[in-house]
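Bit of a strange request maybe. I'm writing a small parser for structure token strings and I need a real example to test against, not something I typed by hand. Could someone generate the tokens for this chain?
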Amino acid sequence: MSGGLFGRILLVAAVAALTTQLIRGKTPALALLVSLTGLLVLFGLLFPGLRAVWQQFRQLLIQAGLDIDLFLPLLKVLAVTQVTRISAELCRDAGERALAAKLELCGGTASLLCLLPLAQQALALMGALGT
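Reply from user aminoacidic:
Good idea to test on real output. This should exercise your parser:
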């Protein structure tokens, strides 16, 4: 990540956090929207970098002769975990702690569902080695 991009990320995060804190007491709903807007802007700044990381990771797997299908469930779990974490924090910011806890439970369940294909492949491999 270049220094300029990191600086922009810090600036957006600081402006969003300060603006949210300034208006939270007067209009909590607007504070949540400002926080969400800051999140979307940050994601927009990071997206090109994420795309580059994905391309390099994919290239490394190809060079190593590894099947990308083995790593997709792990990447999905990583994505579900991060989206769940961010969403739960937004719920907490809105004062909805119970909803955040339920969202985290759903995120954990979604992660397990993402891992099922990998578990099936592992069990099939163990079965093939056992015979």
